[in-house]
Amino acid sequence: MIRSSVTNEGGVSPGAKQLLWLLAIGLGVVYLAAAYAGIYLTRHAGNIASLWPPNAIMLAVLLGWPSLPRLPAFASCALANMLANILHADPLPTALGFTLANMIEVGIPLVFVHWMGCGKGYVSDLNSTLILALGVLIGVAVASPIGAAVVTLAYGAPWSDIVATWLAADLAGMLIFAPPILCFGSDRNRKPLLTVPARSRREWALVGSAFIASFVIVFVSQDYASPYLFIPVLLWLAARFGPALTVIACTAIAVTASAATIGGGWDIFGLSDRGIREQILDLQIFIAVAVVSFLPLAILFRERDDLFAKLKAREERYSLMVRGSGAGIWTWEAATDQLLWSDRLKEIVGISDDDFEPDVSSFMSRLHPDDHVNVLEARRRHLSEREPYDIECRLRREDGSYIWIHNRGQAVWNESGEATRMAGSAEDITARKVAEAERAQYACELERSNQELDDFAYIASHDLKEPLRAIYNHAGFLLEDYSDRLEEDGKKRLHRLIELSQRMECLIADLLHYARLGRNDQSTEIIDLNTVISDIEGNFAETLQERNARIVVATPLPHVTGHHPHMTAIFQNLISNGIKYNDTQEKIIEIGLVPSEKEGSGNDAPTIYVRDNGIGIPDQFRDDVFLIFKRLNSEKAYGPGTGAGLSFVRKIVECLDGNIWLTSAPSEGTTFFLTLPPGKTSPQADAGDQAA
Ligand code: ADP
């Protein structure tokens, strides 16, 4: 509850603050009760403290609940200490002296654990437990001479005797009562000590019987050697049942033994002639030693169990990863020169014998002869120069066939720089290698067939042009030399023949151009589209004026990557089509950048649009217009053309891994969209450039 009311910023809400103050005062009340009982027992046993629990309670609460305000907690406990002494008829100065000693005894371990860096003060791991025990020892060692001095001054008792009993009683009290309280500490992130490992019912029954039996034997027989019977039971609890049960068992023994000793009915080590003071001292030392020995032991066992569980889980994860990856795993020990192969690796190599143990020479003998040198060199470079061991090589399978494996590894080196061990993975990449080889072959064949096509297109067009020229020339001659003998219709037909042969030449030229587009490696560069458009605008100045057309650049255009003449060809084609297939009085060609959905990077392929207010393209021809020689409109209505322009545009765009499409509404206009590879400069930067 207290934790949940702590605000995110680390502050505490006012309600929770009040509650914490109340709890701090409540701690004082508990301290008063424990101190009153402690003093009562001391007086009852002839002024000898058997156990002193209040300081342990105070220390454990302050460590386990760090959000409790320290100052009010200290003040209320100090007041409680004084009150308890006064209630037992101590004069005020004596009560003050006792209070001072007790507060020092709690203050020192508190400061010590913080100073040693285990602020939570938990007894959940061995280090913090030992630090806490050390802090307690220092605190009690400093406080006991002061407390003893107060006793000597007030009651005249021998100082050295009192120092010993104060020290032993407070130490035992701290060690007995602080750990169980700390088990309930407010830090839920740490595994509470109360967690008891799952054990079989039989084991619970056995350990319980052993504990009860030793209890009965020790307290009934009262044999001086019998307290040692607790040791095997505590050891059992520590090893198998965790710190919580160990501490609880120690507390049960301590409380019972104290009660029996104070009652005078029991002498722990059978040396009754030594008197009650010595008996209690023996008891306290026994209790302190038991707790100091078995609590760390229990923690150590639990840490070991946790570690085993973690290791097991990790091993399971690793083996799952290895199995999931499909790669074979290997390790190599330098000292023995032995290799260890995972089952998967054996499977890759086609070995079915589970007991098969490879060594380096058997691995080398499986290597393809052509890969020997490379593998040895890669291994040498890794082991001596520490370069990554990453090599592709061929390995002979059991059936004699070769497979390609991708072999990667990592060595570890000792202080003198010698590799002691190496481990790695081997992945079967045969399928990839075969695909690569096939791809390379296809690429080679494609290159050859392209070359052949190129030659064919050149020869064909060249050869086609020859007779075409001859037809053109002969028609010309006929017109020149026989015009007086030809009728009008004959002349008209000869003119048409010349026109058609010219058109045929254009078509052949376009076909050749189309075949060659994107074939020869064109050097690419970063091109500023704003410059491309303004150049085209310059070239088209007269046409624009004649046709009453204008080009509008609606947004700053980006830089793109491409071949400059090709980029000019794209936009020239689209702009000239926009003017050509346009019946409106004022022809407008608008060019702009489509805003990117993914803002920011500027590295995505920009989409540019070219919009006209022309005749539009019917929906069913949206794809056809990109086919070579496809024309939708008559030459008479919209002027000449071969129908190759848009096919050039598409081919250039696709060679740049771009895309082109259009939207259109008949009589309203057409918008072409094209994505082009980005240039290094982002559109935003371009916009900045333009603004400047
Ligand atoms: P060409 O202009 O030489 O005919 P294109 O390949 O450039 O060849 O265009 C193919 C056909 O697509 C054109 O004949 C025309 O019918 C149609 N077309 C192209 N651009 C437009 C446009 N902006 N508006 C309307 N129709 C167009």
The global form is elongated
Mean pLDDT: 85
Strand order of the largest sheet: 2-1-5-4-3
| Total beta strand runs | 12
The helix fraction, in percent, is 55-70%
Structural class: alpha+beta
Q: Quote the distance from N terminus to C terminus.
A: 62 Å
- Specify Rg, calculated over alpha carbons: 48 Å
Beta-strand residue fraction: 5-15%
Ligand roster: adenosine-5'-diphosphate
Distinct helical segment count: 21
Instruction: Give the low-pLDDT segments.
Output: 1-10, 682-692
Mind describing the biggest β-sheet? 5 strands, antiparallel
Short recap of the structure:
This protein is of the alpha+beta class and 692 residues long. The chain has 21 helices and 12 strands.
Describe this structure as you would to a colleague:
With 692 residues, this protein is of the alpha+beta class. The chain contains 21 helices and twelve strands. The strands form three sheets. Strands 2-1-5-4-3 form a five-stranded antiparallel sheet, sandwiched between helices. A hairpin with a 4-residue loop joins strand 1 and strand 2 (338-341). It starts with 13 loop residues before the first helix and ends with a helix. Bound molecules: adenosine-5'-diphosphate (ADP). Adenosine-5'-diphosphate (ADP) is lined by residues 573, 577-578, 581, 612, 614-617, 625, 630-633, 641-647, 670.
